[in-house]
Design goal:
The complex is a heterodimer of chains A (69) and B (947).
Chain A: H1 3-17, H2 24-35, H3 38-49, H4 57-66
Helix pairs in contact in A: 2-4, 3-4
Chain B: H1 3-7, E1 20-25, E2 28-33, H2 38-44, E3 70-71, E4 90-92, H3 96-111, H4 127-135, E5 161-163, H5 173-182, E6 187-190, E7 197-200, H6 216-220, E8 226-228, H7 229-234, E9 239-244, E10 253-259, E11 262-268, H8 281-285, E12 300-301, E13 310-311, H9 314-332, E14 337-341, H10 347-361, E15 366-368, H11 375-384, E16 402-406, H12 410-413, H13 415-426, E17 430-434, E18 443-444, E19 447-448, E20 451-453, H14 460-473, H15 479-485, H16 488-498, H17 505-512, H18 516-528, E21 532-536, H19 538-541, H20 546-559, E22 569-572, H21 579-584, E23 591-592, E24 596-597, H22 601-611, H23 623-632, E25 637-641, H24 645-648, H25 652-660, E26 664-669, E27 681-684, E28 693-696, E29 701-705, H26 717-727, H27 737-747, H28 756-762, E30 764-766, E31 810-815, E32 840-843, H29 845-850, E33 858-862, E34 867-874, E35 882-886, H30 894-897, E36 914-920, H31 926-946
Parallel strand pairs in B: 1-4, 14-15, 14-25, 16-17, 16-21, 17-20, 21-22, 25-26, 26-27, 31-35, 32-34
Antiparallel strand pairs in B: 1-2, 3-4, 5-8, 6-7, 9-10, 10-11, 12-13, 12-27, 18-19, 23-24, 28-29, 29-30, 31-36, 32-35, 33-34, 33-36
Classes of the chains: A mainly alpha (69), B alpha/beta (947).
Chain lengths: 69, 947
């Protein structure tokens, strides 16, 4: 699995696991902020900005909420 | 008597707890707890009663009849070991008649015992010899008995100890130790009178029997009829160093007994609170790896991995390494290098590695092997309870009424704890085992699980939710506890969630494969117990929802009120000797020591001030991310201390590609391991026998590691890290590991009260240890949780991507075996290979028959990640549809087939769920052939350096 592919999968996974919470997007963003290196967040943010095909809805929203790293 | 044995005072019978009882012994007033034996009471008063069958780690037996006493008002001469004290009792331990009786008994023993004491390996440390000498018995008027045992063959089948029946006095200590301490019941006494003989199994030798080589029989033998072969070969030890085992997370305390610089044996320490005088085959006997011929004792460097190694001095190695790492950072950026701490090295050493990465490398790219085992425990317990650690001490299990063991196999992976657990089960505690496989605890000698819930791999969260669903919907929750101790809002949200039909046993049955009625029965048993405890292992954490399951376990404990006292709790069985410590010491890329987030300015400022360097405030890369970044071309340097990623991490081919992508891989280890085959620098490591420091076990117990021999390579691991850091331009200046611990204590509130002086005084300390708990904390969350109120986390089930398909219809799960340890680097270099010499594939007979596979056939195991070949063992321990293997031998390629699926929160690999197909084959896999060739080539390159 390539690096970006893994990052997308991880982000989707995180979002899926927070899906039962009302604030799932915020929790996902917070998780990325607390546990992911800036380089990882940056790659995902660039990917999202370029279309982000493959990110689920909540993960995409979380990445947007994070902004550029 | 040998000086070493003098230190190990034996009080005759075990301690008892109870109301005080006063009596007199030989005119001396003595007060002891009710239930104490007269023998022990006398010993506590400084009066020694001769004995042979009694020892204070075993219940009294009363067979030898040597320990007779006189008690005023009582007829006869009762055995002091089996007679308990009574108020006002008057005991005489000395009289002419008692001497006569004792001499007569000992004379009978001597009449049936070889008297070549001078040439006996036990000379000087034989209890029969000691008692005979003290009573003045030098020979026997009866002459030598009809001792056919002189001609009975000695049993040398076990690689570590020998049994000589001629030396045996049939005191039953070995049998009792095997029964009561170890719980294996492998020994018995066959025959009667002179024909009595200690026998293993069904008249087998030790190796052919159920004996697990824990050594308890050897340890308890008074005459050394059972004796370590090392003592036969090398004589008696002349000094002893108390230290801590470097194998599993139990952290047994041992006396390393040496003759000069040769370690002869490891004797379990009775005062060790983790093990209380017990051990397993690994810690007890498998220490030979420390001085194995494969040990590398000089630094090695090379420009690239296809070149021969070059032996160099330490200074050149440090200079080479530092120059390479700095050059990489110059060209690829500060974040292009990182470090991995060891879960086998000491707390002090781990602390230094993470300090070097943060302060000298200038980034937070540090991680540890907990990433691949219990990182979900850290996340899950921190979220729910507020601290990333188990809640109890091991001895808490003695108060449990119901024990649930989930995704763990303590008989193999934490054997000394398993012995405690089995003892409690024999006393009547009930057991629920949650495991796809029928582990030994399900049905063993004198124990049987009330429920074996053989769930399908990948369904843990569905199961744990179903348990909690039963508790909540049947009104079994502990409302008072929840009200007093837990956050109300989250509880109510969770309660609504868990009560939903989707979490019922009836609807989750199709996911877990466990009949609903079984789940309901188990949940009721758990919830209605006065004390119910949960013990879990990697079968919980190594899943795509490992963190979620841990939170589910914590939820179950909270909703039933099973936290904050003895006999209950959430107990992660941490695998390695210092994986807990490694996490405690700040090895994760997002946390400083004490589990405090790197972004917290107050915490970061504390370290910046002490370390005199500015620290990055963002998390660094985890191990899987380092691998990805290397394959992608922007991570180029890695320092690995005491870890073998190439063997232990999943998706071997990806790991190898990542390691090949590095420009500077530095491996610090004892042997040229699988990871070192890809290295450019090899720094020889030091074993636990060669250094001072501390380990922290699964019960948060910090114990001393003490140097018994000088480091073979000249430097201990902490000294190596210090020197490397200095070469990088960040000097660290510690004269002794105690100074490192002093710094840790200064900067880490949970360690604030820890010091080497206190460790020496108390023996060990369970953190937190600070002003609030100056002698440590056996049980956590007593009055409140570390986070204040407990948090009920919503644990929605998200199925793993890894599922059985037409192409891969079976699910592979992995585990460990007793005699081998993790990647096997240590145990494969000991006689433990006699017990287990290759990884095999356990397959159900139904699945095997469908595939034309017979016992012992080679099987190809194919997953979407790769394929490997193992021999088949047909067994119904595994359910149809599930196969199982271990990963102790690198040539097995177990991780060639595991995937890079991982836990959503922590990236802990999903080792326990891999979809595979199995078929009969006739040759090794391509990877295995390639591995053999690569390994052979690397050995040749090493040999050139040593030539």
């Amino acid at each position: 699995m390539q690096e970006l592919e893994r990052l997308v999968k991880m982000a989707n996974q995180i979002a899926d696991n927070f899906s039962l919470h009302d604030d799932a997007v915020e929790r996902t963003a917070d998780h990325l902020r607390r546990f992911w290196a800036p380089s990882m967040r940056g790659k995902l943010a660039d990917f999202e900005a370029a279309g982000g095909n493959g990110l689920n809805e909540a993960a995409r929203a979380a990445v947007q909420r994070l902004g550029p790293s | 008597m040998n000086e070493i044995r003098l230190k190990l005072k034996d009080l005759g019978t075990p301690v008892r707890i109870g109301e005080p009882v006063s009596l007199t012994i030989d005119g001396k007033p003595v007060t002891v707890a009710k239930g104490t034996s007269v023998m022990r009471a006398a010993a506590l008063a400084g009066i020694s009663v001769p004995k042979l069958c009694a020892t204070d780690t075993l219940d009294a037996f009363g067979s030898c009849r040597v320990c007779l006493v006189e008690i005023e008002g009582r007829k006869g001469y009762p055995a002091s070991c089996t007679t308990t004290v009574e108020a006002g009792m008057e005991v005489r331990t000395q009289s002419a008649r008692l001497d006569e009786l004792r001499r007569n008994v000992v004379e009978l023993y001597v009449s049936d015992h070889p008297l070549e004491c001078v040439s006996c390996s036990a000379n000087g440390h034989c209890e029969l010899q000691d008692v005979a000498v003290s009573l003045g018995v030098e020979d026997s008027r009866y002459g030598l008995g009809e001792n056919g045992y002189r001609n009975v063959e000695k049993d040398h089948s076990n690689p570590y100890f020998a049994f000589d029946p001629a030396q045996c006095i049939v005191c039953y200590r070995c049998v009792r130790a095997c029964d009561d301490i170890q719980g294996t019941f492998a020994l018995t006494v066959d025959g009667r009178g002179y024909a009595s003989r200690v026998t293993a199994g069904q008249l087998e030798n030790f190796m052919g029997s159920e004996c697990v080589s824990c050594g308890a029989c050897v340890h308890h033998c008074p005459t050394e009829a059972l004796i370590e072969k090392s003592l036969i070969d090398h004589g008696a030890p002349d000094r002893s160093v108390t230290t801590t085992c470097a194998y599993c997370g139990v952290g047994c305390s041992f006396h390393a007994e040496l003759s000069g610089e040769r370690v002869l044996r490891m004797v379990p320490d009775k005062a060790g609170k983790a093990n209380e005088g017990h051990a397993c085959v690994k810690g007890r006997f498998a220490f030979g790896y420390a001085t194995h011929r494969d040990r590398i004792t000089r630094p090695l460097i090379r420009e690239s991995i296809d070149q021969p190694w070059r032996e160099v001095g330490w200074d050149e190695a440090f200079a080479f390494t530092a120059a390479r790492l700095r050059d990489i950072q110059q060209r690829h950026g500060r974040d292009s290098i990182g470090g991995i701490t060891s879960s086998r090295c000491t707390n002090e050493e781990t602390y230094l590695v993470q300090k070097m990465v943060r302060a000298a490398f200038g980034n937070n790219n540090v991680d540890t092997c907990a990433r691949v085992c219990h990182s979900p425990t850290g996340y899950g317990l921190k979220t729910t309870l507020g601290e990333s650690a188990g809640t109890q001490a091991f001895n808490s299990v003695a108060h449990a009424d119901v024990v649930m063991v989930m995704g763990a196999n303590p008989s193999d992976a934490h054997p000394v704890f398993a012995s405690r657990l089995k003892r409690r089960l024999r006393e009547g505690a009930r057991l629920i085992v949650v495991d796809p496989r029928r582990i030994d605890l399900v049905h063993g000698p004198r124990i049987r699980a009330d429920h074996h819930l053989a769930l399908r791999p990948g369904s843990n969260v569905a199961f744990i939710n179903a348990m909690a669903h039963v508790v909540v919907t049947e009104g079994l929750e502990d409302r008072a506890f929840i009200e007093a101790r837990c956050e109300r809002g989250p509880y109510l949200k969770w309660r609504e969630f868990i009560a939903g039909e989707q979490n019922s046993p009836e609807l989750t049955e199709r996911i877990t494969g466990i009949p609903a009625s079984d789940v309901r029965a188990a949940a009721r048993l758990f919830a209605t117990a006065p004390n119910a405890a949960i013990y879990y292992g990697l079968g919980v954490s190594e899943h795509s929802q490992g963190s979620t399951t841990v939170m589910g376990i914590a939820n179950l404990a909270m909703v039933t009120g099973n936290l904050g006292r003895e006999g209950v709790g959430v107990n992660p069985l941490r695998g390695q000797n210092n994986v807990q410590g490694s996490c405690d010491m700040g090895s994760f890329p997002h946390e400083l020591p004490g589990y405090r987030h790197i972004s917290d300015p107050g915490v970061r400022g504390l370290f910046e001030q002490d370390w005199k360097v500015e620290l990055r405030q963002e998390p660094g890369l985890r191990i899987p991310n380092m691998f990805d970044a290397s394959v992608a071309g922007h991570f180029k340097g890695l320092y690995v201390q005491g870890e073998d990623l190439a063997q232990s991490d999943p998706n071997t081919q990806h790991v190898e590609a990542a390691l090949r992508g590095l420009e500077c891989l530095v491996v610090q280890d004892l042997f040229l391991n699988e990871t070192a085959r890809f290295a450019h620098v090899f720094l020889p490591g030091s074993s636990f026998l060669e250094k001072d420091g501390t380990f922290t076990n699964a019960e948060r117990r910090i114990s001393r590691v003490r140097k018994a021999i000088e480091p073979l390579a000249g430097l201990a691991d902490w000294e190596v890290t210090m020197a490397l850091s200095k070469a990088l331009g960040y000097p660290m200046d510690y004269a002794h590991p105690s100074e490192i611990m002093a710094e840790i204590a200064r900067l880490t509130p949970t360690f604030a009260g820890v010091s080497y002086a206190k460790l020496d005084r108390l023996g060990s300390i369970q953190w937190p240890c600070n002003d609030a708990a100056p002698e440590g904390t056996p049980t956590m969350h007593v009055d409140e949780f570390v986070r204040g109120k407990g948090y009920f986390a919503i644990t929605g089930f998200v199925p793993t991507d890894e599922r059985a398909t037409r192409k891969h219809p079976l699910l592979l799960t992995t585990g460990r075996i007793l005699s081998q340890y993790n990647v096997g680097a240590q145990t494969r270099r000991t006689h433990n290979t006699h017990f287990y010499s290759e990884d095999v594939l356990e397959i159900h007979p139904f699945d095997a028959e469908e595939r034309g596979i017979a016992e012992g056939d080679w099987c190809g195991i194919v997953s979407r990640a790769g394929n490997t070949v193992l021999r088949a063992v047909l067994t119904d321990r595994v359910q149809p549809g599930v196969v199982y293997t271990t990963f102790h031998f690198p040539s097995s390629g177990a991780n060639v087939i595991t995937t890079d699926n991982s836990d959503w929160a922590t990236n802990c690999p999903e080792y326990k769920v891999t979809a595979v197909q199995v078929s009969k084959v006739t040759e090794p896999s391509e990877w295995q052939k390639g591995y053999e060739a690569f390994a052979r080539r690397q050995e040749e390159l090493l040999d050139k350096a040593r030539a």
